[in-house]
Write a structure and sequence with these properties.
- By secondary structure, the protein is α+β, with helices and mostly antiparallel strands.
- The protein has two domains: 72 residues, Ribosomal protein L6 (Outer Surface Protein A, domain 3, Alpha-Beta Complex), CATH 3.90.930.12; 82 residues, Ribosomal protein L6 (Outer Surface Protein A, domain 3, Alpha-Beta Complex).
- 20% of the residues lie in helices and 37% in strands.
């Protein structure tokens, strides 16, 4: 048995899970998400818990078993409490600003970078160097954070750029002057 796949998913209060054929719909206070089950994996609800089972012991079904359980657990967590990702901007003159819902980034280029968040994503700022991305879809939150970071990833010499909160950047020594 898969160590992750065999664990039941507790359905918290405020979350509603419906199975319609091969589709699982999960809704809660933050929003609603759906997932279409892959062949070889089944889902059923027993005693306010979601259980994922697989059809056979083949390598494909074993891998899909754990994946399906992890995706459903993330969906349940997302619609009840949500996910957040914190980004930090470091560098002289690098800053972020919100214009309505649109994020405006100044990252040392000749132009401003404008990012409109996807539906279900909320971007807030703490000062002008900390960006907080939150939403109920874990994949979409991570994708948005990766997109923002991709415009100016942290460089190894001075450490300037956009980084995840708590990310350590491996620093390199610069050139040394000749004798």
């Amino acid at each position: 048995m898969s160590r992750i796949g065999k664990l039941p998913i507790e359905i918290p209060k405020g979350a509603k899970v419906e199975i319609k054929g091969r589709r699982v719909e999960i809704s809660g206070t933050k929003g609603a998400l759906g997932y279409t089950l892959v062949p070889g994996v089944d889902v059923n609800i027993e005693d306010n818990k979601i259980r994922v089972t697989r059809h056979s012991e083949s390598k494909l079904h074993r891998s899909l078993h754990g994946l399906t359980r992890a995706l459903l657990a993330n969906m349940v967590t997302g619609v009840t409490s949500g996910f957040t990702r914190l980004l930090e901007i470091q560098g002289v003159g690098y800053r972020a600003e919100l214009q309505g819902k649109i994020l405006k980034l100044s990252l040392g280029y000749s132009h401003e970078i404008l990012i409109a968040p996807a539906p279900g994503i909320t971007i807030t700022l703490e000062g002008n160097t900390k960006i907080n991305i939150s939403g109920f879809d874990k994949q979409l939150v991570g994708e948005t954070a990766a997109l923002i970071r991709s415009f100016r990833p942290p460089e190894p010499y001075k450490g300037k750029g956009v980084r995840y909160a708590g990310e350590t950047v491996r620093r390199k020594a610069g050139k040394t002057a000749g004798a």
